[in-house]
Amino acid sequence: MKNKIFLFSLIVFSAFVGAAVVYVFVDKAAHDHVEKKEMYHCPMHPAIIQDHFGTCPLCGMDLVLVKEESVSNGDHEHEGAISVNPAIVQSIGVTAMEVKESDLKKTIRIPGMVNYNAERMAVVNTRVAGWVLSNPKGIEGTRVRKGAKLAEFYSPDLIAAQEEFLHALKIDSSLAKSAKRNLEVMGLSSSLIEQVETKQEIVTKVPIDAPIPGVIIKKNLIQGDYISAGTELYRIADLNTVWITGYVYPKETKYLKLGMNVSLDLSALQEKHASGKLSFISPMVDFDTKTTELRVEFNNTNYKLKPGMDVDLFLHKDIGKGIQVPNTAVIRTGERNLVILSVGDGHYKPQNVLLGEDLGENIQILEGLAIGDSVVTSAHFLLDSESNLRKAMDAFMEKDTHAH
User: Fold this and answer.
1) Measuring CA to CA, which residue among 312, 298, 269 is closest to residue 120?
2) Residue 341 and residue 351 in contact, taking contact as beta carbons nearer than 8 Å
3) What does R_g of the chain's alpha carbons equal in angstroms?
């Protein structure tokens, strides 16, 4: 009886062990089958993965076979990184730069426009009424020198004042002095008053002269016109200096300081860069454009800068020492900014960074990088895509393994 019980127990134990061994081998084979089966993903949407060929439900692109040798998980030494085959690294042109501390210089490009220097303009008029006698000289755009005769006019009031002056000269010196002052107030020049006094003759054709050198920018008279006192006849602008006005956003005004040098790109005029001084910063912000006006004064003795021209101003400001990387090395997702670090042995991993000032081709990094780090500067979008693909693959495989 005891022998029968022992034999039965031995049979049951053997059956249990055999079943366990079969289960282990079958499960391992099934697991190996899961890991080795082909997977397909969308190149545009790495999260779309399936175990058969098809199209992406989001964009309709054909799914691409995931090659096992292209990328693999990082080991414990490079946690969070992906390992890329050296042949692929070379074929996609991955390059990297070492992070160093350097002097940070910010250049602000400001679209501007050339304007007249309002402090070097003049309006030509008369202080008495009269009629234009001669054909007025010049048209808009004509250069004139200071004192150049632009026109002549006849004024009954000036003739009467000259007669009074000549009469006063014969009677009393004090009366003559008063009459002379009256002619000055009416706008007769000192040279003409002296001529009247010396020759004892009345000037009937009174010249209208240019008060400053410059360019005629407005002309409002023709021969025979009746002109009233104070009527604007000409407007003249001295273009030896011009103002260039530009507009910046309020956040950029912290870099501005009155008197600072501003450069002007004159390459379009086949000239070297010119330099001017920042002469005005508006204390207000435009309600519509949300910008602040600034003004730079430039010498223009060669008249190369013409009012109405569009030009580019450049402000240069030293920020100090810090870390900067090429602007193209930063991947902006909308929710975060990151760069791809090369951590050695063909391993790469994404790194979140906090951006600082935009320095043109480069950008300041405030947090996330340290001196000595190696930042990928080209093909980083492909590495980021592979990193996202590996994350999606891991999630898919884990889900598929649990299902088995």
Assistant:
1) 298
2) yes
3) 43
* Pair 294, 256: CB distance under 8 Å: yes
Q: Please state, in angstroms and rounded to a whole number, the distance separating the CA atoms of residues 134 and 117.
A: 31
Burial class (CB in 10 A: 0-12, 13-18, 19+), 290: exposed
For the CA atoms of 393, 399, 401, 403, what is the dihedral angle to 10 degrees?
-150
10 pLDDT more than 70: no
CA distance linking residue 345 with residue 4, whole number of Å: 65
Q: How far is CA 339 from the centre of its chain?
A: 24
Stretch 268-288: mean pLDDT: 83
The reported pLDDT for the residue numbered 161 is: 94
* Residue 204: φ, ψ to 5°: -95, -30
**Which has the higher per-residue pLDDT, 393 or 370?**
370
CA 16 to chain centre: 77
Residue 37 corresponds to which tokens in the numbers above?
Answer: 């089966």
Task: Tell me: pLDDT of 280 over 90.
Answer: yes
CB 50 within 8 A of CB 392: no
99 by DSSP, 3-state: which? coil
Contacts of 216 (CB under 8 A, 6+ apart): 138, 139, 140, 141, 142, 144, 234, 235, 236
Q: How many other C-beta atoms can be found within 10 angstroms of the C-beta atom of residue 275?
A: 13
The average pLDDT across 9-31 equals 40
Residues facing 338 on adjacent strands: 331, 352
**At 384, which helix (H) or strand (E)?**
helix 380-403
Torsion, Cα of 143, 305, 119, 232 (10° steps):
40
- Whole-number Å distance between alpha carbons of 361 and 341: 19
Residue 279 to residue 112: CA distance in whole angstroms = 14
Residue that is written with structure tokens 């081998």 in the block: 25
Q: What is the DSSP string of 27-44?
A: HHHHHHHHHHS--EE-SS
Q: For residues 153 and 126, is the Cβ–Cβ distance under 8 A?
A: yes
